[in-house]
Design a protein that fits this description.
Blueprint: E1 2-3, E2 6-7, E3 15-19, H1 28-40, E4 45-50, H2 53-56, H3 77-84, H4 88-101, E5 104-109, H5 112-120, E6 126-128, H6 136-143, E7 149-152, H7 158-169, E8 176-181, H8 195-204, E9 208-212, H9 218-225, E10 230-234, H10 252-269, E11 289-292, E12 307-310, H11 321-324, E13 328-329, E14 344-345
Helix pairs in contact: 1-4, 6-7, 9-10
Length: 348
């Protein structure tokens, strides 16, 4: 998979997404600040969401449209989305701001009209939210644009993921990735089950990653160690600036530390390499080797009493110790002198 010419997959560094979501708090200036702060914190991309309350739900106040638990307990869906959405008239301007800042920009569309709008402003790739993974007509419509896609899989069974993947591939689009996600706000690391992320990659043969709603960066760094090539985290300027998503979002300092930890984890993962590393060169001498531990006269036999395997490593390798026992010294050898094959010979 490639995003704006950048490879996403084996051997490539993780692509790190800062999700703005509702953290603009209704201010386009704050939204622009978030874009700049995300770039400064090391994000590769800023993501927004493209919907209105009317494209997501209906204005209805009966029991079905009220949230009973969690971060938004007691909220009415229509009112929540009315407060949290990113005005469409901002989005072209925010895309331009991201381009000037040098950070990628994309969005999650929640219906066909949002896709059409994002096409009109030139968005180059798309996200499918976990809650929309079961909306196969929407997935097919997004995929039909032939652009890279990232699909979150929170709450989804393997069968539902398989159906979504089939919907993408039915359009001929093979440029997509799957993200493990816990659709709880905030999520807890205990229920991430990141091995599922790796398994998705094996089953579907696509890059995988993590859409992480947990607090802190343990989940993200662990996911990278397990092969994640995309990491997404909610991003805000300050959790004290309350919005619908601020309580489970990272501030710039936290996000920057997460990026640094991810990049360090990637360096630690490295490649398959045996033998000494550059940093070990100076310490190899502290391996064990065969040394004289008691003065040996010329012609005297070598025994466990006068030679031993000890540190440091200036003598012959320990694997020759048994062969050396019983042989004779070809010259005087002083205590503390390393033993070498040319110093000894067969018994006479």
């Amino acid at each position: 998979m490639r995003i704006r010419g950048r490879e996403i997959g084996a051997g490539a560094p993780a692509y790190i997404i800062a999700e703005m979501s509702a953290n603009h708090g209704g201010s386009i200036e704050r939204a622009k600040e978030i874009i700049h702060a995300a770039k400064e914190a090391g994000a590769d991309c800023i993501k927004i969401q493209t919907y209105t309350a009317d494209t997501l739900t209906i204005d209805c106040d009966n029991e079905y449209f009220h949230i009973g638990d969690g971060t938004w307990k007691g909220e009415n869906l229509y009112q929540l989305y009315s407060r949290a959405y990113t005005p469409w008239e901002w989005q072209g301007e925010l895309k331009e701001e991201a381009e000037k800042t040098g950070i990628d920009f994309f969005s999650t569309p929640f219906d066909n009209t949002a896709v059409d709008f994002l096409e009109s402003i030139g968005v180059e790739f798309y996200k499918v939210a976990s809650f929309e993974l079961v909306d196969l007509p929407l997935i097919r419509y997004i995929a039909s644009k032939g652009k890279p896609m990232i699909l979150s899989t929170g709450m989804s069974s393997l069968a539902e993921i398989d159906e979504a993947v089939a919907a993408v591939r039915s359009t001929g689009n093979e440029e997509f990735a799957l993200l493990r996600c816990a659709s709880a706000y905030p999520a807890i690391t205990d229920e991430m089950n990141l091995m599922t992320m790796r398994n998705m990659g094996e089953i579907f043969g696509v890059p995988v990653g993590l859409s992480d709603h947990s607090m802190g960066s343990v989940g993200a760094v662990t996911a990278v160690a397990l092969g994640a090539k995309i990491i997404e985290k909610h991003f805000c300027l300050d959790r004290a600036l309350e919005s619908a998503d601020s309580s489970f979002s990272m501030n710039p300092a936290e996000f920057k530390q997460m990026v640094q930890d991810i990049r360090q984890a990637e360096r630690a993962i490295g490649v398959v390499k045996y033998g000494k590393t550059r940093q070990e060169e100076s310490n190899i001498i502290f391996r064990r080797s065969v040394f004289c531990v008691k003065d040996i006269s010329r012609g005297e036999r070598l025994t466990p009493e006068n030679i031993r395997i000890i540190r440091p490593g200036y003598g012959m390798a320990p694997k020759y110790y048994d062969a050396a026992l019983g042989q004779v010294a070809l010259r005087d050898i002083k205590k503390g002198e390393p033993i070498w094959l040319e110093m000894i010979g067969a018994c006479i």
